[in-house]
Design a protein that fits this description.
Length: 447
């Protein structure tokens, strides 16, 4: 019975999709915008030698540049106009979230509703320009110092090259920020997340093709490739389960009598996700941990001997690397959860509207109870993030997996896919309700 009902629901959704012209327009707009983004990821900035640059980036594939290049869909290694991708905007957004937690003025803006949100968004845009300009200038100076056996990465260095590089890269980031906002407003899903999603997924076909080629030549056994595919499906299913998992706290509202009518008395629930922090902890942990590895790699063995020892200990799959990586993930999971969810504010809002948790006194007692529950959930969420992110590292170290589709990128891809599918379903439901309302009106007129 359940499978038949699910099949009927899927058939109905397909029929509803074929009639939902507004949804199809939104999907086509989203696909067109992502195609524009991918085309821009192949337009190089002027004044560089792409062959030399490719050699330099192949030596830094395991550092922070390799991680950023993965998010940018290869645009950083090709040094294109979208080399910075949308990462400056992500950094500015995170900084603004931190500011709302530590600055009373920013916290007041956050509580002003839509007007305050617009001001915070404007500050985020200014911060994006500032961060992008700093990163672009650093890239321009770094490119002038890059060289390999084929020569220098920059054909003609100097202040003019630096100026054009900064203008090009900042302009590319601002265009992607605008494109992401357009996708959010006129397309389907969160535009910024979809841009990162497209950059990560763009490298997946070539990685799978390379793995299959290793299997064809005998470098990897067929059984091991099947094991990788089955394990990938299992990990994705585990991520979907954990991202949907939540603790629902019952909230009761008292009955209120107005005249002869009785209002309220219903119960609701407060959903607390197991992974409240999302993908921020793995991103922060990877960035901090890969920074010294990248700096050591740029020294090219010219520094003291202890730098080489540190680089060896912090190599992928090494015990020290895994221990620090897991510790940073756990720390940022608790830190970011404390920023995005305030138990005291939630308890005050419940008390303001007359809601209470059964068996818990309103006010500070409710805040302590929510904090206790959230702490226990965050322990489980931090363990889940650690498992998902450490598993690829162990595969690389023990079994020499030839491609790196790590935990951070997998979390982003699955989360964005779930969010986009949920928005498509909401559009289908809205179209269904509109159709029912129109039919009811037609029947009313006929009657």
């Amino acid at each position: 019975m359940a499978s038949a009902a699910e099949q009927m629901a899927s058939n109905f959704n397909f029929g509803a999709f074929s009639k939902a012209t507004e949804l199809k327009k939104r999907i086509w707009f989203t696909l067109g915008a992502l195609i524009v983004y991918r085309l821009g990821a192949y337009i190089p900035i002027p004044g560089i030698d792409t062959v030399v640059l490719k050699d330099v980036f192949s030596q830094q594939a395991g550092g922070i540049l390799g991680m950023f290049d993965m998010f940018a869909g290869g645009a950083l290694s090709r040094m294109t106009i979208f080399a910075l991708n949308i990462m400056p905007y992500i950094s500015a957004s995170i900084i603004m979230q931190l500011m709302t937690a530590v600055s009373p003025r920013m916290e007041a803006l956050k509580k002003e509703g839509e007007a305050g949100r617009k001001v915070i968004n404007q500050y985020t845009r200014y911060g994006t320009v500032f961060i992008a300009a700093l990163q672009a200038y650093g890239i321009a100076v770094g490119l002038e110092g890059m060289s390999s056996s084929g020569g220098s990465a920059v054909i003609d260095g100097g202040w003019f090259f630096r100026f054009t590089t900064v203008v090009t890269l900042v302009g590319g980031t601002m265009f992607l920020m605008w494109l992401g906002e357009q996708i959010t407003a006129r397309g389907v899903g969160n535009g910024i997340s979809l841009i990162i999603f497209a950059g990560i997924v763009a490298a997946l076909p070539s990685a799978l093709a390379g793995t299959m080629e290793l299997g064809r030549t005998g470098a990897l056994s067929t059984l091991f490739i099947i094991f990788l595919l089955v394990m990938s499906v299992a990990v994705i299913a585990f991520i979907v389960f954990m991202e949907r998992a939540q603790r629902r706290i019952i909230v009761q509202y008292p009955k209120q009598q107005r005249g002869n009518r009785v209002f309220g008395g219903e119960s609701s629930h407060l959903p607390l996700k197991i992974n409240t922090s999302g993908v921020i902890p793995p991103i922060f942990a990877s960035s901090i941990l890969l920074m010294p590895v990248t700096i050591i790699g740029f020294s090219a063995g010219q520094g003291p001997e202890w730098l080489g020892t540190v680089a060896t200990l912090l190599g992928h799959g090494q015990p020290l690397y895994l221990a620090i990586y897991m510790s940073l993930i756990v720390f940022f999971a608790f830190f970011y959860t404390a920023i995005v969810f305030n138990p005291a504010d939630t308890a005050d809002n419940l008390k303001k509207y007359g809601g209470f948790v059964p068996g818990i006194r309103p006010g500070k007692t409710t805040a302590d109870y929510l904090d206790h529950v959230l702490t226990r959930l965050t322990v489980i969420g931090a363990a889940y993030l650690s498992i998902v992110c450490l598993l690829p590292e162990l595969l690389i170290a023990k079994f020499a997996v030839p491609f790196y589709f790590g935990g951070t990128s997998l979390l982003i891809v699955v989360s964005v896919t779930m969010d986009t599918v949920a928005q498509v379903q909401s559009h289908l439901l809205a179209h269904q309700y509109e159709g029912l309302i129109k039919k009811a009106k037609l029947r009313g007129r006929k009657g």
